[in-house]
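Hi V.,

You were right to ask for the full record rather than a summary. Here it is.
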Amino acid sequence: MDLSFLLILSLPASIQYAMLGVLLLLVAGSVAERLLASRMAADAHRELRQRINSWWVMVGVIFVVLIIGRFASLVFFAVLSFLALREFFSILPVRHTDRRVILALYLMIPLHYYWIALEWYGVFIIFIPVYLFLFIPFALLMLGETKGFIRSATSYQWAVMTTVFAISHVAYLLILPGDTNPAGGPIGLVLYLLFLTQFNDVAQYLWGKTLGKRKIVPKISPNKTWAGFLGGVSTTMALGMVLAPWLTPLSWFEGLGAGLLIGVAGFVGDLTVSATKRDLGIKDTGQLIPGHGGVLDRTDSLMYTAPLFFHFVYYLKY
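Predicted structure:
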């Protein structure tokens, strides 16, 4: 019997059903894309097809690494942090003299994920927001260049905070004791977070397109409306409540709170990256993911939902 099939069968039933449900949604999206082909403008249809095809690849990669195990998953999220940080530096006005500092920031990524592999929560939680935050301005001072010092120090700190520290909380969910979550184990927590985060983005978009009129922050994101925000958060809360007992150690009521947290945090994360792009005068942060833009465009909501959901679950159940 194929090893991958055996690995899938070894997963809890709730995880198997969750993965099957996501695949069915992708199938439905692919079918809808084919049916809408003749009704959409060529450019709009091409973008939709690219988005769905990219979702197939992204979901496939995530499912494979989660099924293989903890080590593969940690490596995957470390690589994701590297790609996100590299993309952030590619859009920032980086000083030529800062190259050695930037190299040091890349090198600290495997070290940070090493703390996760060791299950050393005490170091994990302070390594970047304390020690690395103190290291960055000191390292820049040693270069002897003062022009642009404040902008460089703060932008590098923020880049590392969002792309490495925030995203790494998804990886740390995989390290939490599985016996505390008999329904779905560590993988259940990751699937719950990732699915609700992405679902919230889609729900807010659909509600906004359907009923949205009053804009929230038109100077930052003109497509964000109160109807989209409230409708998306409400839908995410409802889904979070339903899925919580199946994938997490949370009760249905706690799942309602998790859905609220993810809905609001995802909205703020999306807006934050939108504001960054507006400040820099760019449309997308990159072109790595066809139809979606760059890594930051796809992980903007996750940068906020991951650490907040992690601590919500950690202090409630662990």
